[in-house]
Amino acid sequence: MDLNGKNVIYSGGFGGIGQHCLKELLSNGIKTLAILDVKENKEILADLQKAYRAATIIFIQFDITNKESIAAAFKEVVERIKHFDVLINGCGVLMEHNIDITIEVNLLGVIRSTLAALPYMAKNNGGRGGVIVNISSVAGLDLMPYFSIYTTTKHGVTAFGRCMADQKAFDQFGVSFITVCPGITETNLAADYHKKVTFDFYQEYCKKLNTAKRQSGEICAKNIVKVLRTGRNGGIYMLDVGEIKEITYPEFWKAEF
Length: 257
Ligand SMILES: NC(=O)c1ccc[n+]([C@@H]2O[C@H](COP(=O)([O-])OP(=O)(O)OC[C@H]3O[C@@H](n4cnc5c(N)ncnc54)[C@H](O)[C@@H]3O)[C@@H](O)[C@H]2O)c1
Prior knowledge:
Elements: E1 7-11, H1 16-27, E2 32-37, H2 42-51, E3 56-61, H3 67-81, E4 86-89, H4 99-121, E5 130-135, H5 148-164, H6 167-173, E6 175-182, H7 203-209, H8 217-230, E7 236-240, E8 243-247
Parallel strand pairs: 1-2, 1-4, 2-3, 4-5, 5-6, 6-7
Antiparallel strand pairs: 7-8
Helix pairs in contact: 1-8, 3-4, 4-5
């Protein structure tokens, strides 16, 4: 998608990866940016508004664990910016000790905000179509048993993106789904892994994981926006140590009639 002149919603925009994505999107000439997050970051907002004066940048507070809050946020976006072409679902937590919050934010949150956005975007409902990017993880491709709840939610996000990209759904909605799966990226989420494990016996391994090769938030953001510009409906892209790799899946099963 050519981003020039587009209206974009970014949920989780003030996070470590999110804040770099906001700059990258604005550098690609988007017209309007609606940032959704649980807490306003006035400093980031003011810096962006100063640096990208041609764009309209708004913040709407929401809590992705709350259905009503999600619905209200999308309603407010549309009241304020009329329509949007892109939604990036970028909220996430790594909190193995809190199963409910992990599932609520990482999986239910992505599903609920996608389903809240679709009626506004869907061509079969008078919308203009567009692109939804879901941020999964390498933990949504392969196993991280030391973060087993997180891994489970991210596998769900990857599967959801693949299902929503089905041709029949695309024919109805005209909305493409792209899933990005970052590897370890320098943000608060990826700090002190050993304190975030599912079971204490993984602490030693995760102390080592703290020193594993990682990419900057800036590089990750550049590649997220590159994939948004050039990716295909249903594409699953691993973004690890600065590289982009499209993932393909074998077919294991098909219904027989
Ligand atoms: N950092 C990594 O190594 C890494 C790797 C792979 C995938 N990811 C994924 O990338 C995304 C961004 O992660 P990050 O590393 O920038 O983390 P981060 O903690 O810096 O940012 C997470 C964002 O989600 C928001 N958020 C959390 N709970 C929320 C709630 N209840 N309601 C609304 N917003 C909420 C936070 O306010 C924050 O802006 C997440 O989906 C994460 O799982 C991160």
